Amino acid sequence: MSTTQDGISGARARFCTQFVQEIVEGVLTRGEAADNAAALRFKRDRRIGSRDRRFLSNALFAYFRWYGWLRKAGIAGKMELALAAAFAAEGIGGGPAVVWAESAGIPEQEFRAALKHSSAAERFEAVLAAAHTGNHGTFSLREVIPDWADKLLPRELQEEERLPLWLQKRPPMWLRAQTEQITELVNDLMKSGFSAEAHVHVPGALKVADARGSLYATPEFQKGLFELQDFSSQCIGMACMARPGERWWDVCAGGGGKTLQLAGMMQRRGTILATDIRAYKLEDLKRRAARAAYPNIRCAEWNGEAPPRGKKGMFDGVLIDAPCSSSGRWRRNPDGRWSASAERVEELAGIQSRILEAACAGVKPGGVLVYATCSLFEREDERIVKDFLQKHHEYVLEPFPDPATGRKTDGMLRTLPWSADCDASFVARMRSISTRG
């Protein structure tokens, strides 16, 4: 056994193997979310420091990013070889990766030689050859997307070569400023150890490319000067175009990121009703609203069947950020590719249609209805909107600017990872042309 196997790298690699194996089993057999399962594991074992948490998380998500190839090669269950191959695909060498390779029977010099290849597929295939797996097939980057999911994508994304490339890239963190002093906020974040870059068209959207440490612990966050919110999510809020003095209903508010965004757009004037079918989800929103000193947000549980009592036809705007497959977040949560299914997407589409049908009654004549998801699938996005408009001739699509480019949309917008190095989302803005409630 090499000194690498005996030393710190060996101990780290073995612990990581056990950690990944435990989380993978929960994801693939019990449908758990990898990030939640990892967070629970870290909470149980306080001995795992921040540096190790980062490494363990990166290894876990590397496994799921390349799971399509690992499964095709027949090595998904051979954890040391799987991790060595996944790290090779990502172009990462170093101590633990060498340990995994050696444990799988690959001499260190052969593993390092595999890393010298220029493409992910070549590096992956070289590791398989060095391990004498007997699998010498070729691997297409499209195979990182499950077949069932590829078939549900809009045709243009089925043919889009950039999609699998971007899905394999680790996403940055995006912040939404809750202050007009953007330059001062960027400078203060720099002092706290975070380099933030403002979006060219949306100055209040700040990208933090490599966040090492906790943004939540910064003085700027504690003062309510920013919230963590992906750029694609911010695009949904911006499509609402909420104005001061209006009344809005955020139907599926959850933790309230878009509720807070609407409150900022409304300059603390007007009212926002934030609801969710799960009342406990709103507790975090209450804390966040208090930190940012937003006085115009009210939270309430919603039964999902009709507007709250006395609120029918009362809102200038209704936002439905519907529960969905979250396929637009597969850069951030690659395990979702392998725990979801076409059947679940169809089930969610039914839920989305019912929520849209129930919540639209809250829009006042002439008001705005915004439907959104963080899904890549046409079944959850364009098709839901088109079916709704066929039943409700009192609504029409209303064009709005694409925040990423400034160009006007036709009333529907799909934000994609290459739009701004972000997650993916879909949003449609509809206007009520009815003159009666």
Could you describe the 3D structure shown?
There is one protein chain. The protein has 437 residues and is of the alpha/beta class. The chain folds into 3 domains: 3-144; 173-228, Alpha-Beta Plaits (2-Layer Sandwich); 232-432, Vaccinia Virus protein VP39 (Rossmann fold). It has helices spanning 3-6, 8-30, 34-44, 50-65, 67-73, 79-89, 95-103, 108-114, 120-130, 147-152, 155-158, 162-167, 182-191, 219-222, 231-240, 257-265, 282-291, 336-339, 342-359, 382-391, 417-420; strands spanning 173-177, 196-198, 205-208, 226-228, 247-250, 271-276, 297-301, 315-321, 363-373, 395-397, 412-415, 425-432. The strands form 2 sheets. Strands 5, 6, 7, 8, 9, 10, 11 and 12 form an 8-stranded mixed sheet that branches. Strands 2-3-1-4 form a 4-stranded antiparallel sheet, with helices on one face. Helix 17 links the parallel strand 6 (271-276) and strand 7. Helix 6 (79-89) crosses helix 7, helix 6 (79-89) packs antiparallel against helix 9 and helix 15 crosses helix 16 (257-265). The longest helix is centred in the first third of the chain and has 23 residues, at 8-30. It is globular, with a radius of gyration of 23 Å. The termini are far apart.
